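Anyone? Bumping this.
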Amino acid sequence: MHTMKNNRAKVGIIGGAGYTGQELVRLTYGHPRMELVWVTSESGAGKRVPGTALTFDPVASVDFGSVDLVFSCLPHGASGEWSLRARAAGPRVVDLSSDLRSGEGGAVYGLPELWREDVRGAELVGNPGCYPTGVQLGLAPALRASLVDTGRPIIVDAASGVTGAGLTPKREYMFGEVAEDYRAYGVGNAHRHVPEMARGLARAAGGEAPPFVFTPHLLPVRRGILETMYVPLRERIPADALASLYREHYADEPFVELFDGELPSLRHVNGRNVVAIGFADVNVDPPVVLVVAALDNLVKGAAGQALQNANLMLGFDEREGIPA
Amino acid sequence: MHTMKNNRAKVGIIGGAGYTGQELVRLTYGHPRMELVWVTSESGAGKRVPGTALTFDPVASVDFGSVDLVFSCLPHGASGEWSLRARAAGPRVVDLSSDLRSGEGGAVYGLPELWREDVRGAELVGNPGCYPTGVQLGLAPALRASLVDTGRPIIVDAASGVTGAGLTPKREYMFGEVAEDYRAYGVGNAHRHVPEMARGLARAAGGEAPPFVFTPHLLPVRRGILETMYVPLRERIPADALASLYREHYADEPFVELFDGELPSLRHVNGRNVVAIGFADVNVDPPVVLVVAALDNLVKGAAGQALQNANLMLGFDEREGIPA
Amino acid sequence: MHTMKNNRAKVGIIGGAGYTGQELVRLTYGHPRMELVWVTSESGAGKRVPGTALTFDPVASVDFGSVDLVFSCLPHGASGEWSLRARAAGPRVVDLSSDLRSGEGGAVYGLPELWREDVRGAELVGNPGCYPTGVQLGLAPALRASLVDTGRPIIVDAASGVTGAGLTPKREYMFGEVAEDYRAYGVGNAHRHVPEMARGLARAAGGEAPPFVFTPHLLPVRRGILETMYVPLRERIPADALASLYREHYADEPFVELFDGELPSLRHVNGRNVVAIGFADVNVDPPVVLVVAALDNLVKGAAGQALQNANLMLGFDEREGIPA
Amino acid sequence: MHTMKNNRAKVGIIGGAGYTGQELVRLTYGHPRMELVWVTSESGAGKRVPGTALTFDPVASVDFGSVDLVFSCLPHGASGEWSLRARAAGPRVVDLSSDLRSGEGGAVYGLPELWREDVRGAELVGNPGCYPTGVQLGLAPALRASLVDTGRPIIVDAASGVTGAGLTPKREYMFGEVAEDYRAYGVGNAHRHVPEMARGLARAAGGEAPPFVFTPHLLPVRRGILETMYVPLRERIPADALASLYREHYADEPFVELFDGELPSLRHVNGRNVVAIGFADVNVDPPVVLVVAALDNLVKGAAGQALQNANLMLGFDEREGIPA
């Protein structure tokens, strides 16, 4: 690492013109211990990076070696390659795409609330996906405590705002096609995020992943994810007992909010770097408990979590520069 | 019944100023074999019934005996009572509230696609709820064919537009509280519609209701319901085989649309009197199949279905006056 | 014209997969005196035309001579050319683009409420734009009565839903860019529709067009146009007197709705083939009166009006097949 | 004033449960030189103030004398009275309602960008309304430079998100009534904010207010105001020359953003304490120039501006605690 001047790390962002990139620009620009040095965008090259004094550079023109840490927000497919190229030039790298999440290139999976020690001081991190963040944080404590009946699948019925699909113009994400509609997509465990979830749940369960079904839906909102999870239990456990267990598990976590009695909704997490988790009893037999997780897909589901990881990689306080 | 002049039945609507009432006014007003004679509303009394030449009357001032059939769109609680009062005065009655759905006052449950013969010629009908319509039509063929593993609960994850909650001003339904939000409510099988679903599923199963979990969510859209149902199967059945079974079951139904390959969304059913049903394989063990039902809560989930029932009660073609 | 079998005219639609095309398919398909024979779409070729038993054809494969009337819903630029090519093959043609609105190819401008006789029996019609329909119907009676002070510009502040921009994917019309936003565009009388408005206002004024400023805005709604017009008056005229004048002017028009006391909004016109017009006094000097026009951009602003024109061209009742 | 411990002023908020109150809680809670001591709400009494460790108190139970400054966010009518009562107990007071905006009780009108010196050290301030903030900041430089032709009215066509109407449940602000609609209200200069605008414009003009027409519309968005202003000019002035004049006028203002070439929209100001102003030439005669102002009704239109005023009243840097 460079010798940080004034205790500030120099950072660069590859692919900073999309929704996630914009959020990351905003967060790093206001970060007390980071100095945003460059932001790349091919389509935006030469234009002002909104909210900053910088101008977008084409990726080919930046010197990766000039910074201490690089964030890559390119689309899946391209991002992993550029992340490795950047890493080879020296700086630590957080890749926000799904390319490095299963350890490609020696990358560490960066979900601090579950596996913080992996991230501390790491040089290359695969930043978790938005849906998998809620699923893993919402199910891990129950799995670690062996409460889940793995003979029945966990059902994860999820809904996301459209910024999760990025800024590339596609007919299915046009206002006229999304407003006043609600639809399932990527059904049958076909979503790109399913293998990532399976790996995470297996690790939390300390063995095989429990069977689960993941069904995402597209919501007519800009941002936010709500995951309604139907968890089969070995034995009936009251929702408030489960809440206590989670409260203990996440006792010192600044970015997990546990709800008592009521359930979180998108409103509670908008613009904030938190996963909010609530619980509800279900009157059915064999027993099932409802776990609802809400997060902002662009913050705790992307840029905010990337900042947690970057802070840990650089030896800063994990909460540094992350708005409560 | 009155001798119908010109083959037209005289009809009246109690509580016609709300969302369901407005839809029913629209449909009956354009009905080739109905003549809308009066519409009541306490709050709207004296004002024009939108889209018609009529004026809202207070309910106390109308003569129930002057019509052949009455629709009651009052809120739950009041509607059943007024329906029975109207019935006592002579006309046939369709109650759109939940008050008579379990047979109170001798009412017949009016879901024609499953139990049409009950409705034909009936004098008092309890019109199904919006959520239960999709659940029953979406699950009945599988239950009748004994495909469902009743040792595991069916999960019904549902989402509805806000017109389902009516026009009474409440803080939770204000635009500022609903837009950009998405939230679960009435969780844990606590929703008013759960007993109605249980009765219907039991009847379709020919015995006890299978265990199920119903979780409604509030969508930031005006109208439409999507129900994503996770159906545990005794043995794995491909989605297309299930689709064939449903196709046979609903072969002659004008108001059921079965999807092949893709899944229905709110867009497909907006303003139309149909339930659209689609199927998807899920790669999980033990086996589960996905059944997705979409309907317009104000049409097939309320006013349109009420018209199907009224047509059957009056001896008309069931499709009369119902826009395709 | 072909000898119409069963009194039905055969019609075809060029470019029927977009928003306007879909609406026109819906309306012609249910028209009692039209038979929809083919619908073209390059991108949709081979797929089902939604809501019909037809399949989209590529434009090159249809026989224009096989129908009595062709509607062209192609984008501006291409539409005029195809309209003339279709016309050359025999059928009457309604071009919904802006290409023929100033009389190119001998086309007649089809705004029946103002210049109906031009349209009756015409062979080629340029169908008015959505914004110009509201502006012309909202201002013509005042201009014809010489009430407007042409020494001050009329201000037309307009807002439209996004379906007005069509289905072609563009970043600026993505849900994430439109929701929770509201923005002016095409300002400074730069909008493509301004010359069309100027021609119409000049004709209504019986001379030169009055000076006017037209500012469109993009609304986060799917459909509907609201035009708030600030009309400078020679002398103060109360809004209700103006309303009376308009009521007389449009006395026999089935597709103009005049409001008394209140003002129309998008809700009133959604899905309907009407222009709704309201008036309000403004307490200011020199005198100004407010005229507000609302219409559904896809119906009275496009497909519904095209059907009015087609009915007139074919000698049918102008209201035939147009939902009230 | 109390001796401020640690350089922090103690503040209280009357009526802190509404939209404006919530925003003010958020801003004061994170303010480096303020300590939020109590927040009142009758309906919320006893419940947690969201995002804080405080509990809502009924207004009768708080000691106004315990703080250095009170913000009142009560509805118009009640707010002025409570502001004066609070003031009598010692603390400085910022009233966010319209009750004190014309100087009642000796209050100063708090629009710092135009009349900052009035506010510095003031003891009682009437905080400007959301619409008037944009109108005054958007028109004052042109009026001060005597560019406006006062023989023709300025037209202000404005649109606001629904949070401007507060949290009290009313039918017209229900999601089902606002979504997919757009409507004018308070037309004919009947809006409560018109006299406030007139006073401000008169003061900026250094004499009488120019004639103007103000027409607000309700947008289906949560927050944000866009004001499209048609300004009659004595002589034609290019938009960029006007922009230069404004740039000079607002040279040192941290909360005014001037746009070059493009126009601001709601997106640019969401959640931020700024008025964004843009300009466009209009090709019309007699000359008119377009001035478009955008602001967040809850921030620069309410809570953020209140904080500017409080900072000035308490002798702090005006920008303290206000997010850029």
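Late reply, but here is one note on the structure posted above: The radius of gyration of chain A is 20 Å.
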